[in-house]
Amino acid sequence: VEDKVKQNNWENFSFLNYKKNVETLSIVRERLKRPFTFAEKILYGHLDNPHEQDIERGVSYLKLRPDRVACQDATAQMAILQFMSAGMPQVATPTTVHCDHLIEAQIGGEKDLARAIDINNEVYNFLATACAKYNIGFWRPGSGIIHQIVLENYAFPGSLMIGTDSHTPNAGGLGMLAIGVGGADAVDVMAGLPWELKAPKIIGVKLTGKLSGWTAPKDIILKVAGILTVKGGTGAIVEYFGEGVDSLSCTGMATICNMGAEIGATTSTFPYNARMADYLNATKRGFVADNANLFADHLKADEGAEYDQLIEIDLNTLEPHVNGPFTPDLATPISKMKEVAVENGWPTDVKVALIGSCTNSSYEDMSRAASIAQDALNHGMKAKSLFTVTPGSEQIRATIARDGQLKVFEEFGGLLLANACGPCIGQWDRRDVQKGEKNTIVSSYNRNFTGRNDSNPATHAFVTSPDLVTAFAIAGDLRFNPLTDTLKDKDGNEFMLAEPTGAGLPLLGYDPGSDTYQAPPEDRSVVAVAVAPTSDRLQVLQPFKPWDGSDAHNLPILIKSKGKTTTDHISQAGPWLKYRGHLENISNNYMIGAINAENDKANTVKNAFTGEYAGVPDTARYYRDHNQKWVVVGGDNFGEGSSREHAALEPRFLGGFAIIAKSFARIHETNLKKQGMLPLTFADPAAYDKINPEDTVDIVGLTSLIPGKNLKLVVHPKDGETWETELAHTYNNEQIEWFKAGSALNKMAAANK
Ligand code: F3S
């Protein structure tokens, strides 16, 4: 019977799979014979090959089969274009796309949304038609923020999901592993390839006591961020447990998991409990809760499971925290804030207070904030600071409109923004201060790096709970502590704000609001994907050519880069992001940030044919158009930084053949392999120094490319003797097939024919 239980209310093709997960896990149990943490149970229950998979936390690479993929509109463009180039009729794993990142906050929700639909029309049209064509659920602009929609509709306990956004872990609030990835990983899973993840270490956080008063779930992660810092969670999953968990609402747990991204954690999760069942019921998924209840033993850690690191937090004594400015791990308890702010010279006037975002826009968050605002109104006061409200979804907006919270915010002086990322991702046409002016803003968001919200490097941004954001908005002052300080009402009488209150779930149930979902149509064969040939933002990708079957001779070196070559040097972000769906246009940024070892200049390389100096992309294009393959030579940890797939697509598109470096950042190396580029390393690192930008090279041994066997690099200096050195590689058998086919997608497409 269990096989027939649907995962959600939107798809008739995705089902709960607890039985299979438990069976897969039992194979691993037989082999490892030890208790597992909850996160391990989810991971190992989703292994592609449980019989042979090496499993050592922090060491092995796991091959996994995620249940689901979620993409936001900025990253979805290239992911879908790549998927299309594989020529498959539909995605192999349930996938959804969410329009939330491209909506700029300016004058208020409705008008901002209308403007965004106008400006981004071709992108939205492309995504809508591509989703319809390839059986992907499409959430239109205005529907809400990806992580909120996933929590409300798709997340379920014990599942494994990947999403093309850093705060994908939000869904951990429903007892699952939701992991943020780059577009390349999403494409693999959409195409049915297993997904690779280094077996994470597990950090346990034991919660004792009970939350109360002004302390909110957000304070747990603000405290954890202070303990672990922005790097402390790297390569680890944070797993919460202990009796304190039951005092948290499901959406509160989601807030904690969401902001786990700020400590670099792979993801965060909570064991399945009754609060999650309540939320599933409230969001019309009682059938999921009923089934999860049958597998409750599977949905928590085994007795005696061991953690790589253990942290304990007593919720009885946990204080509200305010983190920032400029970094989310600078945690200050509210009782110290006054002193610390003054000592550091942070501007104490709070200019703008912003609640909502994917981190903190639940019904509970909105209700508690509204209770504080109402208290102020009762004393004849309004917000002193500008106050904005970003609902995480249309459902939340409609429900707080029905239940009165929205009215309170409006009376309080609040401005309702669109159900979208808005100021959180810098989509904010801020007008109250000039660029460069020192000022303070407080938000219930998760990230506060310099310039993130308003691109003003002088803005001091603090992140805290929506409760404190609202209290700061009333006082207009960062030194205000609502637990101890009084305010003056309209008649000059002193009063203290009452502790916030608010229901975790709406008593009348959620109001879905307007219909913002587009389901894939029954007959998808007639759908045409809308990409205008004249577009400068979108371009259909052609599959890359397969390998020609021979070694490469006399390849010029496009650039020998010096020092660090990060993915930002390889494919800059900023204004280039506009072209992330147009490979030809975005390729004009290829390696323009890298320093040429020949002349210490950026974006100035010598053309091997003409002898003239020109930009890197122009020179690469010249070679490509003259049918000349080329290589890049680089130093250590080449391609470190973000997982940006453009950094691997661009050299391939521009006719590159190999990147030869001292060493690679692993994700970039894999991305290059996926696109059919050869990432090779000098077996003798001294060869990097010996090779000159004007030399040409042969790569020999490709016809007998096998795992573990070095290739040969023959170097022909401009003047002087030819010399040879060995090139190492990390290809396995499967990846060698990618190289031969021209790309991993080509290989997948061929296998599906
Ligand atoms: Fe959007 Fe900010 Fe969340 S950018 S997805 S609201 S972290």
Structural description of this entry:
The chain has 24 helices and 31 strands. The chain has 753 residues and is an alpha/beta fold. The protein has three domains: 10-314, Aconitase, domain 3 (2-Layer Sandwich), CATH 3.30.499; 321-482, Aconitase, domain 3, CATH 3.30.499.10; 552-751, Aconitase, domain 4. β9 (236-241), α9 and β10 (267-269) form a beta-alpha-beta unit. α3 packs across α7 (183-190) and α8 packs parallel to α9 (250-259). The longest helix is centred in the middle third of the chain and has 16 residues, at 363-378. It binds FE3-S4 cluster. It comes from Lipomyces orientalis. This is Aconitase family-domain-containing protein.
Offer a quick outline of the entry.
The protein has 753 residues and is of the alpha/beta class.
Which ligands occur here? FE3-S4 cluster
**CATH hierarchy: architecture of the largest domain:** 2-Layer Sandwich
Radius of gyration: 27 Å
Q: What share of the residues does DSSP label as strand, in percent?
A: 15-25%
| Share of residues in helices | 25-40%
Strand order of the largest sheet: 22-26-27-28-31-30-29
Secondary-structure-based class equals: alpha/beta
Organism: Lipomyces orientalis
Protein name: Aconitase family-domain-containing protein
